[in-house]
From TrEMBL:
It comes from Oryzias latipes (Japanese rice fish). The chain crosses the membrane at residues 438-460, 476-496, 508-532, 552-571, 596-617, 629-649, 661-684. The keyword Lipid metabolism does not apply. Its main location: membrane. The lineage of its organism: Eukaryota, Metazoa, Chordata, Craniata, Vertebrata. GO terms for molecular function: G protein-coupled receptor activity. It is a multi-pass membrane protein. It is found in: Cell membrane. Keywords: Cell membrane, G-protein coupled receptor, Glycoprotein, Membrane, Receptor, Signal, Transducer, Transmembrane, Transmembrane helix. This is Olfactory receptor C family, u1. GO terms for cellular component: plasma membrane. The keyword tRNA processing does not apply. Residues 438-699 form the G-protein coupled receptors family 3 profile domain.
Length: 701
């Protein structure tokens, strides 16, 4: 059993038997370590090995070169800081690094010797049961966000909240609504899968199956899971796990030549080279997922290429790497000649998180040890100062938060953090103002519509005794013009800062105005159809649908909309709301969204009936050609509001209001010009046609 001596104490641990190619226990007290002495010791845990598997004989306890690169990046960062004359001058950082072997048991065995030291800072990829101040480089689990349970936990990697949100958007964007999920028994996987499934289902997706891979699965369990994957109709599988936990299942699926699945990977394995082995190509080609941003760390590549095997104590991990890379004990080949994941540092991701974690510790210690004290004439630190883990956890929070405080606070409503994230400042409220360029245009169009409607009313009143005005019930025509005027005016309620009353009035005014307008058009259409029927022998249809009946029909078709709007405003009225999801947008929040869609749906119902009847009467003799005008106007109306719905849903903030105003104005102008434009043309430009004889002539237009 190899023994590593450090500070006159014996340390034993985990190593690799190259003949058996499997994990073997080298001692019962402590694991193998890579260490260097210093004034302050930093601990680290890295998953250098994966446990032996009874199902994959060729991959027992495979050495992970990518994880070894993470380990050596920590060593590089420590040595870089020790050679710096600016950061921690006069203080030497040491390290004590062990192998977690990618399981909790070995992680705990490796952890306890680290936390026994008086001054220590420990971080790992799992962060299980830490009593110090861990800075994690790879722990993305949302469970660790709870500061009540993990008050001293910090990380240099984003939470899975963002990754899950991105994966849901990716899957739904590609139209994959029927997917399977695979996870493991750890919190990273369980929380990730739970969050993904919940958000995916909210977007209309469905989880076809979920598999949980046991920590040490048997051959029968692996085969059963592979059977379920093959039997499922789902062709897309989302996987939250680390690559070592997936090897057994992927090996079985590759053996079965499964090639029809689209894999969506979590960041824990999407860039792992372990699964790019030729054996898995047909199974995993085309895998999608998100990874951390890649960066280039200066001088890291040269450092990684200048490590060599040694018989000295404490060099076991480096020797294991050389054995794995070259399968010999003493190699002298240049590492740059090998294309391994260890030497690929062009765009490092997790290594950069490790690098940032070391520097976060260094900056925290720099402030804690008074290295920048003005009382000192020379740059040095008070390395004899005693400090506790709580103090280390604190200048950490300062280092990781530009605000300079130990914890971040949420800004009050209507407040934003400033550019430096130091303080809360009053946010600028944004809404569709009449002073904005867009607001000015909309107000101008609204006033144009109101004026144009008023002009037509004056014209019709001036020529109210002429045949073309009297032809189709002038009373209904005037009511139609009045309702169109209200349609134009209701768009003004949408412009300006929302208030309690404008939020309540706007949708009701819009809904009722358009229903009155459509009711008038519906009556006009029915009159046209019945008037033609009166030409037939024995028909008394038009006499039964006189002016009184027409008024009653308008009242009855408008009443449901009035009742709906009244109930909506009484039980769940819209109210002003400051939406700060992206920016502080003052908008009208609708506590009962179906109310708006019911109002819109009733308008659509009346429009559809009116369009259908007008379409049926489009080929009537020219005496009754108003049916054609109504048909054309309703086609424009329908096109506007059908295109409105997707545009309204997809428009953020004040732009949804702009979309609704445009729809109101476009449909109002369409009805006004299509119905009354041709009549005004005859009244003003061709008065010779505005006589009883011409109105009844087939040549009238």
């Amino acid at each position: 059993t190899p023994i590593v001596r450090a500070n006159n104490s014996e340390v034993a641990g985990v190593g690799v038997d190259s003949d058996a190619s499997q994990c073997v226990t080298l001692g019962d007290s402590h694991p193998v370590v890579l260490q260097s002495e210093g004034d302050v010791i930093i601990g680290g845990l890295f998953p250098l090995h994966y446990e032996a598997s009874e199902t994959i004989s060729l991959m027992h306890c495979r050495f992970d070169q990518r994880a070894f690169r993470w380990l050596m990046t920590m060593v590089f960062a420590v040595e870089e800081i020790n050679h710096s004359s600016v950061l921690l001058p006069g203080v030497t950082l040491g390290y004590r690094i062990t192998d977690s072997c990618d399981n909790v048991h070995n992680s705990l065995r490796a952890l306890f010797p680290l936390i026994k030291q008086e001054f220590r800072t420990t971080w790992s990829e799992t962060n299980a049961c830490l009593s110090g101040s861990p800075v994690s480089y790879f722990a993305t689990c949302t469970c660790l966000t709870d500061k009540r349970m993990y008050p001293s936990f910090l990380r240099t990697v984003p939470s899975d909240i963002f990754q899950v949100r991105g994966l849901v958007q990716l899957v739904t964007f590609l139209g994959w609504r029927w997917v399977g999920t695979i996870g493991t028994t750890d919190d990273y996987s369980q929380y990730g899968i739970q969050s993904f499934s919940a958000q995916f289902q909210k977007q209309g997706g469905c989880v076809a199956f979920h598999l949980t891979i046991p920590k040490s699965p048997t051959l029968a369990e692996i085969q059963e899971m592979a059977d379920r994957v093959q039997r499922s109709a789902a062709r897309v599988v989302v996987v939250f796990a680390t690559e070592g936990q997936l090897l057994d299942l992927y090996f079985e699926l590759a053996q079965r030549n499964v090639t029809h699945l689209q894999w969506v990977a979590s960041e824990a394995w999407v860039t792992a080279s372990l699964l790019t082995l030729p054996h898995f190509h047909s199974l995993l080609e085309g895998t999608l997922g998100f990874s951390f941003p890649g960066v280039n760390i200066p001088n890291l590549e040269n450092f990684l290429l200048n490590i060599h095997p040694s018989a000295k104590p404490g060099m076991e991990f480096i020797n294991m790497f050389w054995e794995d890379q070259f399968e010999i004990q003493n190699a002298s080949s240049n590492l740059s000649l090998t294309g391994s994941s260890y030497t690929d540092v062009s765009r490092v991701r997790i290594s950069y998180n490790v690098y940032k974690a070391v520097y976060a510790i260094a900056h925290a210690l720099h402030a804690l040890l008074n290295c920048d004290s003005a009382e000192k004439n020379e740059k040095s630190c008070n390395k004899h100062k005693q400090f506790t883990s709580e103090q280390v956890y604190h200048p950490f929070t300062v280092c990781l938060s530009p605000s300079g405080s130990a914890e971040c606070i949420k800004c009050p409503e209507s407040y934003w953090s400033d550019e430096k994230k130091v303080k809360c400042v009053a946010g600028i409220e944004e809404f569709l103002s009449s002073k904005d360029s867009m607001g000015i245009i909309l107000v101008a169009l609204t006033l144009l519509g109101v004026v144009l409607t008023a002009v037509i009313i004056v014209i019709f009143h001036r020529f109210r005794t002429t045949p073309i005005v009297k032809a189709n019930n002038s009373e209904i025509s005037f009511l139609l013009l009045l309702s169109l005027k209200l349609c134009f005016l209701c768009s003004l309620v949408f412009i300006g800062q929302p208030s309690v009353w404008t939020c309540r009035i706007r949708q009701a005014a819009f809904g009722i105005s358009f229903v009155i307008c459509l009711s008038c058009l519906l009556v006009k259409t029915i009159v046209v159809l019945l008037a033609f029927q009166t030409k037939l022998p024995g028909s008394r249809a038009l006499k039964l649908f006189g002016p009184s009946q027409q008024r009653i029909m308008i009242v009855f078709t408008t009443a449901p909309q009035v009742c709906l709007c009244a109930g909506w405003l009484l039980w769940a009225p819209p109210f002003p709301f400051r939406n700060s999801a992206y920016q502080i947008v003052v908008e009208c929040k609708e506590p009962w969204p179906p109310g708006f869609y019911l109002v819109l749906g009733y308008i659509g119902l009346l429009a559809s009936v009116c369009l259908l009847l007008a379409f049926l009467g489009r080929k009537l003799p020219d005496t009754f050609n108003e049916a054609r005008l109504i048909t054309f106007s309703m086609l424009i109306f329908s096109a506007v509001w059908i295109s409105f719905i997707p545009a309204y849903i997809s428009s953020p903030g004040k732009f949804s209001v702009v979309v609704e105003i445009f729809a109101i104005l476009a449909s109002s102008f369409g009805l006004l010009l299509c119905i009354f434009g041709p009549k005004c043309y005859i009244i003003l430009l061709h008065p010779e046609r505005n006589i009883k004889k011409c109105v009844r002539s087939k040549n009238s237009r």
